[in-house]
């Protein structure tokens, strides 16, 4: 039941940090068209919360980051199966759009359950089970990108790739966006890090001062691009840039950029 509730609440209720980011952007936005879009986002969120309807019709792929304490024992079945059943129940009971096809290429038939979900499972110390859930719609997810840079590309290479990716996306991911950047690891780890970064509260910086400064510098460049709300011009293209890192090979510099739309739909429960 917890997973089903997470799905419904994520679809209906805009997180407080997102609401605060929109309100803050309204005070700074210089474009009247941009301000109008931001006001519409606030009103849309109000209606969704009051009427208990989805903030956006694209209720996306259900993505989970699950932290399983090593003292936790799961009984009655596999945890991934339980999460999948919760997604199916939540999407049906919440009247959320089913968007998953069983075969990605040849027979794109809807599973009619919005399953299987994407689950990243890790084992941690302790006796708690932490489930973080996000809805990733096609508009933002399709604009994400990954590059295997050379170590010599350095900071400027990371900045240029990130800014280029966001600017190229234009209005497709429904900006203002939140930008998750994964640096290091390897091909798949960089992508996972970039998505994990989106679970951080908007504006909560990386704990390393060097990366915190880099987040701010990239954000400034993105907002100076003029893409603006809905890609139609303005000062607010992104609310935040969040960077997560991992050690990597001496010959590699993997960088992934995962984009989240202004309706950053995520929820968390600790059991």
3D architecture notes:
This protein has 271 residues and is of the alpha/beta class. Helix content is 38%, strand content 23%. It has a four-stranded mixed beta sheet. The radius of gyration is 19 Å and the shape is globular.
Short descriptors:
271 residues; four-stranded mixed beta sheet; 8 helices; 8 strands; 38% helix
Q: Within the largest sheet, what's the order of strands?
A: 2-1-3-8
The portion of residues forming beta strands comes to 15-25%
Amount of helix: 25-40%
- Distance linking N and C termini: 12 Å
The total strand number stands at 8
Content-based structural category:
alpha/beta
Shape: globular
- Largest beta sheet, briefly? 4 strands, mixed
Count the helices. How many?
8
Q: Please give the radius of gyration in angstroms.
A: 19 Å
On the 0 to 100 scale, the average pLDDT is 96
Low-confidence stretches: none
Name the helix and strand elements from N-terminus to C-terminus, one letter apiece: HHHEHEEHEHEHHEEE
Concise structural overview:
This protein has eight helices and eight strands; from the N terminus they run H-H-H-E-H-E-E-H-E-H-E-H-H-E-E-E.
What secondary-structure arrangement, pairings included, does this model have?
Elements: H1 2-12, H2 16-28, H3 32-51, E1 61-69, H4 79-93, E2 118-124, E3 129-136, H5 138-141, E4 145-149, H6 154-169, E5 177-185, H7 187-196, H8 209-223, E6 238-248, E7 253-260, E8 266-270
Parallel strand pairs: 1-2, 5-6
Antiparallel strand pairs: 1-3, 3-8, 4-7, 5-7
Helix pairs in contact: 1-4, 2-3, 6-8
């Amino acid at each position: 039941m917890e997973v089903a509730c997470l799905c419904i609440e994520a679809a209906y209720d805009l997180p407080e940090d997102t609401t605060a980011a929109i309100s803050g952007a309204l005070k700074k936005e210089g474009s009247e068209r941009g301000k109008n879009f931001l006001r519409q986002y606030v009103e849309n969120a109000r209606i969704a919360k009051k009427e208990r309807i989805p903030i956006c019709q694209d209720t996306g792929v259900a993505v989970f980051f699950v932290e399983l304490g090593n003292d936790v024992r799961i009984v009655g079945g596999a945890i991934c199966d339980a999460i999948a059943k919760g997604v199916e129940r939540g999407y049906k009971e919440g009247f959320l759009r089913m968007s998953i096809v069983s075969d990605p290429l040849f027979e794109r038939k809807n599973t009619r359950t919005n399953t299987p979900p994407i689950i990243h499972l890790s084992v941690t110390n302790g006796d708690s089970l932490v489930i973080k859930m996000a809805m990733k719609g096609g508009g933002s997810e399709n604009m994400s990108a990954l590059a295997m840079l050379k170590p010599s590309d350095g900071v400027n290479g990371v900045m240029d790739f990130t800014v280029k990716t966001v600017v190229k996306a234009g209005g497709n991911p429904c900006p203002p966006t939140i930008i998750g950047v994964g640096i290091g690891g390897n091909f798949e780890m960089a992508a996972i890090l970039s998505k994990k970064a989106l679970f951080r509260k908007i504006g909560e910086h990386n704990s390393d001062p060097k990366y915190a400064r880099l987040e701010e510098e990239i954000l400034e460049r993105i907002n100076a691009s003029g893409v603006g709300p809905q890609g139609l011009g303005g000062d607010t293209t992104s609310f935040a840039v969040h960077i997560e890192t991992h050690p990597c090979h001496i010959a590699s510099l993997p960088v992934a950029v995962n984009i989240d739309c202004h309706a950053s739909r995520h929820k968390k429960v600790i059991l």
